[in-house]
Design goal:
By secondary structure, this protein is α/β, with parallel strands linked by helices. It has helices spanning 34-45, 57-68, 84-98, 122-149, 172-192, 210-218, 222-228, 238-249, and strands at residues 25-29, 49-54, 74-78, 103-106, 154-159, 197-204, 260-263. Strand 1, helix 1 and strand 2 form a beta-alpha-beta unit. It has a single domain (25-263), classed as Rossmann fold (3-Layer(aba) Sandwich). The chain contains eight helices and seven strands; from the N terminus they run E-H-E-H-E-H-E-H-E-H-E-H-H-H-E. It starts with 24 loop residues before the first strand and ends in a 6-residue tail after the last strand. The protein is globular and about 45 Å long.
Amino acid sequence: MNETANSAPVPATSAPAAGLLAGKTGLIIGAGRGIGAAAARLFAREGARLLLASPTEARLKAVAEEIRATGASVDHIVCDLSDPASVRAAVDRTVKVYGRLDIAFNNGAAAVPPNPLDRLPEADLDHLYAVNLKGPWVAVAAEVAAMRGTAGRGAIVSTSSVGSLMGNPWLPAYGAMKRALNSVTASAAVTYGPENIRVNAIAPGTTRTDMLEHWNEADPGVIDRLNAQTPLGRSADPAEIAEAAAWLLSDRASYVTGTVLRVDGGMRA
């Protein structure tokens, strides 16, 4: 460490704090609902200019119009994570609209009905691979290129899952793709750190999204069982997960890269 016993404390400042993401231009993939929509609202409040991407235009447009009504700068584009050209187009659109890319939140994901490994249809496995692993892989590659060519630095966060950190008998393919995404995150962090591009992931626990509700419909009582395994005793609001992503994307996390941050209410403590 460089500090010495005589190091002076950093003086407090009375200057007003700027927004956490003030001056940043960002892309959010999967911004039409749940964690992505909550992130869009939060990032805009924190000063970012945003390009929102999602496969469902009606939801996406509603979120964009809501944010635009607050006076924030926001645009949107339909994006299918399973289509690499669509993912690249979203990144290109951000640069075309704003001239640069500083931050990116790869939040989009797909889910399939819960099934143990031996009963999971192969088509479901292929779909999860295309959306939950290949899609973020393509996104990170395109985002790095855009950051390198414009801002010269940047930060990327992808949404993993607490299910990537444990065995998951009912969502084995979902957990496998998210665990692979953790590896992609670590590899990208090591590769692009020398260019001052930070790459992290968040691992949400039980979060009140449409995906969770659909799982609860297929397996009644699963939310209560998951909450019983969570020290905080409840599921998260999507806005709570968005706060973690915002911090990782901000300059306040300037020395954090290559991590998978659990935001799980203590489930894996």
